[in-house]
């Protein structure tokens, strides 16, 4: 597992993490400083690009191509859930773009002394909010949570949350093949 702080959200399904070996208990955030600003050399040179396992989100604009409907909302939701928070990552593989693919668990808001902070799975939260769908492709890692992810996606779809609020939503895979 890797410990870190989420310092940037690039898309609705990937983040950049500043690695903090040993996590909070090794002094990161209270004895040792962690970066606060995206673009700071310490962030871009020493952060790890991580793709959230098991999900796909609407495609943001890349390489002069227009963004997909819902991409900005998905990015905003992931920023709300993750940006600036401590996390740990179970890395499963490296994808074709050199990103670590893993399950990212984020520390929730700090609680009173003596009560541990809860951790939540970012992939699950994005599915629950309706701003992501299950990634269907070959060699996909779901962190042994595919059935749970399917239920979360189905519930968001039934409640017409996020991308499911639009009557006809084009999957990110279909969108990429067109553009």
UniProtKB/TrEMBL annotation:
The keyword Iron does not apply. Keywords: Calcium, Endonuclease, Hydrolase, Nuclease. PROSITE patterns: TNASE_3. It holds the Pfam family SNase. One of its GO terms (cellular component) is membrane. It is a single-pass membrane protein. It is found in: Membrane; Mitochondrion. SUPFAM superfamilies: Staphylococcal nuclease. InterPro entries: SNase_OB-fold_sf (IPR035437), Staphylococal_nuclease_OB-fold (IPR016071). Residues 1-166 form the TNase-like domain. One of its GO terms (molecular function) is endonuclease activity. It comes from the Eukaryota. Belongs to the LCL3 family. This is Probable endonuclease LCL3. It comes from Tortispora caseinolytica NRRL Y-17796.
């Amino acid at each position: 597992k890797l410990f870190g702080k989420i310092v940037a959200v690039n898309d609705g399904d990937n983040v950049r993490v500043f690695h903090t070996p040993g996590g909070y208990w090794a002094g990161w955030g209270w004895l040792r400083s962690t970066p606060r600003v995206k673009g700071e050399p310490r962030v871009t040179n020493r952060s790890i690009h991580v793709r959230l396992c098991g999900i796909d989100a609407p495609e943001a604009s890349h390489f002069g191509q227009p963004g997909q409907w819902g991409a900005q909302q998905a990015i905003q939701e992931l920023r709300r859930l993750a940006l600036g928070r401590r996390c740990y990552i179970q890395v499963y593989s490296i994808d074709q773009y050199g990103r670590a693919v893993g399950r990212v668990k984020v520390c929730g808001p700090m609680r009173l002394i003596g009560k541990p902070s809860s951790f939540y799975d970012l992939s699950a939260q994005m599915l629950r909010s309706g701003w992501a769908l299950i990634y269907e492709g070959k060699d996909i890692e779901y962190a042994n949570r595919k059935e749970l992810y399917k239920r979360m996606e189905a519930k968001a779809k039934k409640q017409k949350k996020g991308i499911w609020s639009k009557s006809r939503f084009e999957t990110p895979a279909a969108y990429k093949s067109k553009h």
